[in-house]
Amino acid sequence: MRPKVFITRAIPENGIELLREHFEVEVWEDEHEIPREVLLEKVRDVDALVTMLSERVDSEVFDSAPRLRIVANYAVGYDNIDVEEATKRGIYVTNTPDVLTNATADFAWTLLLATARRLVEADGFIRSGEWKKRGIAWHPRMLLGHDVYGKTIGIVGFGRIGQAIARRAKGFGMRILYNSRMRKPEVEKELNAEFRPLDELLRESDFVVLAVPLTRETHRMIGERELKLMKPTAVLVNIARGKVVDTEALVKALKEGWIAGAGLDVYEEEPYYHEELFSLDNVVLAPHIGSATHGAREGMAELVARNLIAFKNGEVPPTPVNREVLEVREPGFGK
After folding, report:
1. Taking every annotated instance into account, which residue ranges of this chain make up the domain D-isomer specific 2-hydroxyacid dehydrogenase catalytic (predicted)?
2. pTM for the whole thing?
3. Over the stretch 313-335, which tens digit does the pLDDT of each residue have?
4. Could you confirm whether 288 is annotated as catalytic?
5. Does the chain have fewer CB atoms within 10 Å around its N or its C terminus?
């Protein structure tokens, strides 16, 4: 019998078609998140699991899935998975880096520019009829935003996505600052980027973009103290994880003018609603769509399939998260 894979939400068909050539495939077709009790039931007889950021994959799931050998996360981040526990049990974990880098970097810039130039406010100004009502075709002080070209961008997290954001910043003639766990001299030279401790980066930057994974160290790394270090004309963009920022502190910063604006694609809980935050004009909001292009999502689906097929063939998957699992179990089903 072919190994069985359960997919917790319908991914692009190219990935499903690839998997069907090698696996017995079941897909949760409902657009809503799979209920926890249903997930625990569905994994009872699966060999592989394809999951999303919204699903918690932990000891309870592993206990319910005695045959489970690999979890393929349809995302770059994997903070939804207890990787340490998976490794102890000999369960491989993979993710989908690289294929969504450019789409996500593009979207970071979408948020940055839209926030800096007050694009959503301008759109609403027209759609509401307010422009026509006021009867002013053009005014020198109408909807003034902030310049981007030639300014300083600070990128917190300088992995693939952070570096891609920096490459785009070069086209805007920007001074590039970055912060990461380790300095990257070769990339500094390539991009003419300057390393800064976080506090210095926040003080010096006109635009701060968060592109870090969610870890114990990065949880709420941007709070009231950090927001007060930023310029009152600065813009904060978060494409990382919602819990990297203290939302209540951000609301206060936006209301009281500690910073000029924010562009958000991620939130502390998802789906999410925050009446006070969402009522502010100086924040641009998106529902976690950083990688939402046809090309990126299809690339993610293909990489998920390649990881599972490689594992089935007894090979190390292309993008393992917990390579140390090799010390516990060789790749392949039935081993």
Report:
1. 5-322
2. 0.93
3. 999 999 999 999 999 999 999 86
4. yes
5. N
